[in-house]
Amino acid sequence: MSAAIQASALGKAYRRTWALRDCTLAIPEGHVAGLVGPNGAGKTTLLRLATGMLTPTHGTITVLGQPPAAGPAQLARVGFVAQDTPVYARMTVADHLRLGAWLNPGWDDKLARQRIRQLGLNPKQRAGSLSGGQRAQLTLTLAMAKRPELLILDEPVASLDPLARREFLQGLMEAVAEQRLSVVLSSHLVADLERVCDYVVVLVASQVRVAGEVSDLLAAHHRLSGPRRSSGSLPASLEVITESHTDKQSNLLVRADGPVLDPAWTVKPVSLEDLVLAYMSRAGSDTPARRSHLGVVS
Amino acid sequence: MIRLSLLQFRIQASTAAAVLAAFTILLAATGPHLASLYAADGLDSCRGGSCQNLAIYFSGSVGRGPYGVLFLLTTGVILLAPAVIGLFWGAPLIAREMETGTAALAWNQSVTRTRWLAVKLAAGGVAAMAVTEALSLMQTWWAAPISQAAADGASIGFAQSRFSQLNFDAHGVTPLGYAAFAFALGVTAGALIRRTIPAMAVTLAIFAALQVVIPLWVRPNLAAPDRTVVSVTSPGMAGPSQTGPGGASFTLYADSIPGQPGAWLLSSGPVNAAGQATSSTPAACTSVGTGPGAGPQGNAFAPGQGPAAFVACLAGHGIREAITYQPASRYWRFQATESAIYLALALALTGYCFRRVSRLS
């Protein structure tokens, strides 16, 4: 199995600043993968590098085993919904579908028309007068109907109201279920990811803090609370992600390869949001060995 | 991709079609009348020297009327068309996609950027050249009587030589070169600046500057000019100027070369018998007055006075006029060379656009 997106020491430098620096990651195929991280982590840069909208200044990136946007065939394999979901304001909805049909040999016109009908969009309406949610749905339709193997979405719902957000993600999930395609989407809103993703990558300052299947990650992480003790006294099988202490009590979020058996701890499961926030707020120097163990796919 | 560029091009295309239609109607409605005026002035059936006088009369009378205005107006449209195309077709082609973010949509279909740009450039470039040249050809047809009057020796009113800047820029194949270049310039400016309005401003500034620089300083040197020395014969050719510190001086006026109709005069100046440039009046001629009152009775000149006597005196002292010029026979060579320069510039810009667009993000 090749990776949907594989990056090695990937970097994009502008004259004075790094948009992405020394990023190494592998997102496996066959998942709906969420790329999450604070603003400025490099999510958009990474996804634009993956679509070939940007070219790297350092390192390498492959998408489905090929260099991004290497030719018409590779372009056909990857669908992209860009941030702010741009459309041609003066062209109608129907014109956009025509554009898709003309420019994509694998275009699924039936799917496109069906989606537009379900969404209740008027084909004769100009795209410039669509609401943000409708516009996002239109670009998603375009990206889907070209029948890609991988769909990349950059903050697709960031500017949408909660209802439009839910509808968009629902539409995405239905399409994924029907089409069996891989998805990588970025968001800084964990709640969105929780709803749709079965794989998550936490990116902070170009570095992967944690990556893995959501179910595995949730099973391996625990929230521990108990009498105050220093984290240094914990067994080696527990990796502390975050800790907070009061006078009498310690609260930890840990990664444990096995069950936590120490009866002194009250063990609770973690939510994906807790887990992601814990990794995002964790100080930057997690061990490279640990990271590669978590991040690599076979 | 071709169909997409046609779809996206329809607003510009309909504007161009409207301009072309208005232009066609205007010229088709007035062209036959203009030709009938030409024929009515006897220019259809004249022979030899009488043609020049008829042509001067025609150009003077008709050129002062509405047809003179229409001639300037239509010439202006042809000269402005490339600039307008560069601004409104060229500059937004890439800049608008970058500004609105739709580049992310366009460049993520199953078509490479190179192909996307190739089709867009080809469609826009061909349309730009076709529209401009169509305007030019229609106006050339309409203005055929005027051009013929100029060829017959008239150089007043709207009848100017083919080398005059208005005619040279608006007729022949130069509009093709201007249109291709202006379009490519607009696209390049848009690709570099990524914002439509500034790209339009830069396009206009560069194109306008070239349209001044090339006719003034480049075009005259596209071929080494011919030189000739003509004798001063006609009274209209010379007159004394003010007497200055260096003694009395005179000037020569020549707007044509005997035996070289339609030639493009680049420079002219008097030379003495030894072939050296001079402008001081020979001492013997200073007493030959030419102004009113030089003669004893009103406007009649005394023997040995007046313009004819002055010219004869100059000629008698070996004064002749040295002229550098481009012969009329070089017209098409100049047209082809200048078009080729603009087309080469357009190609170079196009090549740059392809390199640039593969790195844009």
Number of domains of chain A: 2
Total number of beta strands of chain A: 13
The H/E string of chain B reads HHHHHHHHHHEEEEHEH
CATH superfamily of the largest domain in chain A: P-loop containing nucleotide triphosphate hydrolases
Please give the CATH class of the largest domain in chain A.
Alpha Beta
Radius of gyration of chain A: 21 Å
State which percent range the strand residues of chain B make up.
Answer: 5-15%
Structural class of chain A: alpha/beta
Question: Could you describe the 3D structure shown?
Answer:
The complex is a heterodimer of chains A (298) and B (361). Chain A is an alpha/beta fold. Chain A has ten helices and 13 strands. In chain A, strands 5-6-7-3-8-9 form a six-stranded mixed sheet, sandwiched between helices. A four-stranded antiparallel sheet of chain A has the order 11-12-10-13. In chain A, helix 3 (93-103) runs parallel beside helix 5, helix 4 (109-119) runs antiparallel to helix 5 (132-145) and helix 5 (132-145) runs parallel beside helix 6 (162-179). Chain B has 361 residues and is mainly alpha-helical. Chain B has two domains: 2-223 and 330-359; 233-318, no CATH class. Chain B contains twelve helices and five strands. In chain B, the strands form two sheets. Chain B has a three-stranded antiparallel sheet, with no helix packed on it. In chain B, strands 2-3 form a two-stranded antiparallel ribbon. Chain B is elongated and about 90 Å long. The chains are: A alpha/beta (298), B mainly alpha (361). The A-B interface holds A 48, 51-55, 69, 71-73, 75-76, 78-80, 82-84, 86-91, 95, 98-100, 102-106, 139, 142-143, 146 and B 1, 3-4, 7-8, 11, 100-105, 107-113, 115, 359, 361.
